[in-house]
Design brief:
By secondary structure, the chain is mainly beta. 4% of the residues lie in helices and 43% in strands. It is built from one helix and eleven strands. The radius of gyration is 20 Å and the shape is globular. The N and C termini lie far apart (68 Å). The mean pLDDT is 83.
């Protein structure tokens, strides 16, 4: 019909999964911006990250299975993390969740990239984590930390159906909560 006109495209959504021991530094870099990686003894690495105003984006693919056994590839370009959360509780794996903002979504246009995973990759477990406050190891029973990137997700201009690259419109905001066993008040230092 001649009375139909395309509206604005809105691309994005939530992705949640367990956090793995390898190949996750890019997620933190996309969420925070600044990162330095230093190799340590034993083949491990230390990733030091901090918030910076940046324009790091990613291409994200997902395969949507059909009832007929085929998979429809969806490719989001210009993807940026709008908000994120890292959490863990006793006896559970550490989880990561992120809300993404994208500029464009292509359906069936790009074949799915071949995924490859390390054979030694495994989920982070709660018992592998530690937390220090003012240099003192704390007895944490669960924690949750999150961030909001402060990105403008509605940068639309005349002649376009997609948003322009999301830019930071406000300061990043960080929130968190944890449960700590109080223990001996004299050994808790400055708490």
């Amino acid at each position: 019909s001649n009375q139909w006109a395309q509206g604005n495209k809105t691309v994005g959504g939530d992705i949640a999964h367990e956090l793995y021991t390898q190949s996750t530094a890019l997620l933190f870099r996309l969420a925070l911006g600044g990162t330095v990686t230093t190799a340590t003894a034993g083949g491990t690495s230390v990733h030091t990250m901090w918030p910076v105003a940046g324009s790091l984006s990613a291409t994200v693919q997902v395969g949507v299975p059909t009832v007929y056994g085929s998979v429809i590839p969806k490719t989001m370009t210009g993807g940026m993390i709008a908000s994120w959360e890292l959490a863990a509780s006793q006896g559970e794996n550490v989880t990561w969740g992120a809300t993404w903002i994208g500029q464009e979504l292509t359906v069936s246009g790009t074949a799915l990239a071949s995924a490859s995973y390390s054979t030694t990759m495994r989920p982070w477990r709660f018992q592998e984590c530690s937390l220090k406050i003012d240099g003192t190891l704390q007895q944490v029973t669960n924690f949750k930390i999150g961030g909001d990137s402060g990105l403008a997700d509605s940068r639309r201009f005349l002649g376009g159906t997609v948003i322009s690259q999301p830019l930071r419109e406000k300061l990043m905001e960080f929130t968190g909560e944890m449960e700590i066993e109080w223990g001996n008040p004299t050994s808790m230092g400055t708490l």
